[in-house]
What we know:
Elements: H1 3-6, E1 9-13, H2 18-35, E2 46-50, H3 54-73, H4 76-82, H5 92-104, E3 107-110, E4 121-124, H6 130-143, E5 149-152, H7 159-166, E6 172-177, E7 186-191, H8 197-209, E8 213-216, H9 225-263, H10 270-277, H11 279-293, H12 301-308, E9 326-329, E10 332-338, E11 343-346, H13 349-359, H14 369-373, H15 378-392, H16 395-416, H17 423-433
Amino acid sequence: MTLDERLENVAVIGAAGKMGSGIAVLISQEMAIQKLKPENKDKIYRLNLIDVSERALDGLRSYLRAQILKRAEKSTVLLREIYKERKDLIENGEIINEFVNDTYELLNFSTDIELVKDASLVFEAIFENEEIKIKVLKQLKELCKKDTLFLSNTSSIPISYLDEKAGLDGRIIGYHFYNPPVIQRLVEVIAAKATTEELKNIASELGKRLRKKLVSSNDISGFIGNGHFSRDGLYALNEVERLKEKYGYHGAIYIMNKVSQEYLIRPMGIFQLIDYVGVDIFECLLRVMRTHLGDECLISELIDKMVNNKILGGQYPSGAQKDGFLKYEKNRPAGVYNVVKGKYYMFDEDWKAGIDKEINPTNEKFVPWRALLMDAKKVDKLKTHFDNLKNMNTFGSELALDFLKETKAIADNLLVDGVADSADDINAVLMNGFFWIYGPINNYI
């Protein structure tokens, strides 16, 4: 079957979740475009959106309509071409509303997993729990057609393991969208040993249709993105343990978050990133990788304490950031959690000024990530920035340079361990999936 044929009936499992809902937006738009081609006018298209909660599906309905409308408003040239034979549609607003309605007609919302029985493509986007994933994949195998293909959004579980345990005979591939899928350009593609050539080709063509940057990772737990992120986070967590004696947990977290954002010129500090992903998700990544790699170093007592204290981060349905290592007001850090005291230490300007002076006594100003993002001279400016760090000889610059060295060492090990095939692949994942403006494998040290 061709991709066009498979797009006539598609299912998303876990459709109301953070990742599933974004996947649903992308696939619904591509299906609508296919449906509206003159040669397909007599075909029936269905996108089956399946989740366990009716309440969550209600939220999904609202989210999809808003997102489909937003994307349609940015695609008026394409939509005018699609509807060029419709003489009754003149204004852009009329065309946009028609596309939203046509897209919405494709959608089935249900808590009944048996709705997958006619699907030719199934996207699995449920919680990162391998026992649940395997159980669901086994169920899908029994319900679906013998030639149905499965794309799993797993972020750390080896695809060969899922394939073997669910008995899918190579009809599964890792298709790891980054959060949020509607905005993020990267999709990490992970083929199992037995993944069929047909599925590899379908995955490649679909990525091009969705205008995603596909980067292949080898099938080793954590893959490229989370293989690096988890160890990057662990390094910061270990530094917190070292610094806590002098600064307390809240001070140490503040320092490492500030250094990783401002000194390393990242879009957010490492603890903001862990909060964004979810502290519990980070703990899950470590557990899955520890299990499949047999590496007992992939663990953090601090992360485990945070999860036990139900300080989990993540986002509200509105997209607002939930409290995690940091407390947020209007989506900006306003305090730091102290796990020993079990409460947030709210930022005090005098306290912040004291720590800032200790790590940056000369009050050196750094160019922020956003200012360099689209700067044509950012490569030269980055070199100048890191050269300056080497000459500063401050506590903050030492922390930053050590972090930069560790970041590169982690990436180098991903090559040595065969997770990635090239430095370019590693840099592409961090720059496209995490919005870094330089890759971890660089010449800045």
